[in-house]
Amino acid sequence: MNNCIIGIGSNINPEQNIRKMICLLSKDHLVRKHSSWIKTAPIGITDQDNFLNGALRLETQHSREEFNQYLKQLEDRMGRDRSLPKFGPRIIDLDIVVWNGEIVDEDYHTRDFLKNSVDQLL
């Protein structure tokens, strides 16, 4: 079993979409705990709604590569539009931040909201 922490965020109906994503993840994986949720200003393109961000600690039988693909499929299933600009509005955003105790996402070191959320689960 692999242990990981993923960052999760949304600025399109964020409470509803994050709750829905946690339910979807719970169907196939053991979700252990979530961090507190924090509202953050958008990065890059600032003319959009604030984001709701947090982190989830869970267990998966997938390899890291398989799990990353699985997360992207879930984002697509929720309706994420990948044609929008990189820092545009997101119905849902999922990123592996910690994999089996190792920080694997450099954003952890540069985004305080992500670091604070992840640190609650370490």
Automatic annotation (TrEMBL):
EC numbers, comma separated: 2.7.6.3
Pfam families: HPPK (PF01288)
Pathway(s) the chain acts in: Cofactor biosynthesis; tetrahydrofolate biosynthesis; 2-amino-4-hydroxy-6-hydroxymethyl-7,8-dihydropteridine diphosphate from 7,8-dihydroneopterin triphosphate: step 4/4
Keyword Transferase: yes
The species this protein was found in: Ancylomarina longa
Protein's recorded name: 2-amino-4-hydroxy-6-hydroxymethyldihydropteridine pyrophosphokinase
Primary role: Catalyzes the transfer of pyrophosphate from adenosine triphosphate (ATP) to 6-hydroxymethyl-7,8-dihydropterin, an enzymatic step in folate biosynthesis pathway.
InterPro entries per the UniProt record, alphabetical: Hppk, Hppk_sf
7,8-dihydro-6-hydroxymethylpterin-pyrophosphokinase domain residues: 86-97
GO BP annotation list: folic acid biosynthetic process; tetrahydrofolate biosynthetic process
Alphabetic keyword roster: ATP-binding, Folate biosynthesis, Kinase, Nucleotide-binding, Transferase
Alphabetized GO MF terms: 2-amino-4-hydroxy-6-hydroxymethyldihydropteridine diphosphokinase activity; ATP binding; kinase activity
Family membership noted in the UniProt record: Belongs to the HPPK family.
Matching NCBIfam families: folK
